[in-house]
Amino acid sequence: MPRITPNLWFDTQGQEAAEFYASVFPNSQITNVTYYGEAGPGPAGTVLTVDLVLDRQEFTAINGGPEFTFDEAISLLINCADQEEVDYYWTKLGEGGEEGPCGWLKDRYGLSWQVCPVGMGELLNDPDPGRAQRAMRAMLGMKKIDLAALRAAADQA
Fold first, then answer.
1. The pTM is what?
2. Residue where a domain stops, chosen among 39, 68, 97
3. 77 and 150 assigned to the same domain
4. For an engineered disulfide with 145, which of 33, 103, 121, 135 has Cβ 3.0 to 4.6 Å away?
5. What is the DSSP letter of 148?
6. CA-CA distance, 30 to 40, in Å (whole number)?
7. 125 and 104: one domain?
8. Residue 18: which residues within 8 A CB-CB, separation 6 or more?
9. DSSP string, 85-139
C-alpha cells in the first residue's frame, strides 16, 4: 500500500519550520533536504524541500513561494495522553503563534493544530446527553483544553 506524506507549503521558511517541529516532537528528525537548481523556479542553491519525520509520521516541507498560505481548512491533531502533554504542546507550538477556541492554535508559521487530550471525545459523546452537553458548553468557552475542567462541568447536575 502506498504511503501518504502530507506536504506543507511555505514561502521560504520550510527548513526553519521543519527544524522547529523536529525539536518539539519526540522521535523526530529531518531526513533529507533538496535544493533549487539553475532551472529554478527558486534561486539556485536555496532550499526546495525538507523531508522530516515527526514521531514516526512523514512530512515534506516545500518552499513554494508566497502564492499559498495555510488556513483552518487543514489542521494537525495531536492526541495528548494527559494534561501535561496538552500544556507542553500548547506552549511550544503556540510560541509566536495565535491561540484559537476549543484546543485550536496556529503556530508561528500559520499552520493550525488541534491540541486535545485523550478522553475529551468520550466526554463529548457521553451516552448521557446532559453530561455531553455540559462538557461541550465548557469546551466552547476554552482556548487550551483543560480535561479536569471538562470532567467537572460534565459532572455538574
1. 0.93
2. 68
3. yes
4. 103
5. H
6. 23
7. yes
8. 30, 50, 52, 59, 61
9. HHHHHHHHHHTTSEE-STTEEE-TTS-EEEEEETTHHHHHT-SSHHHHHHHHHHH
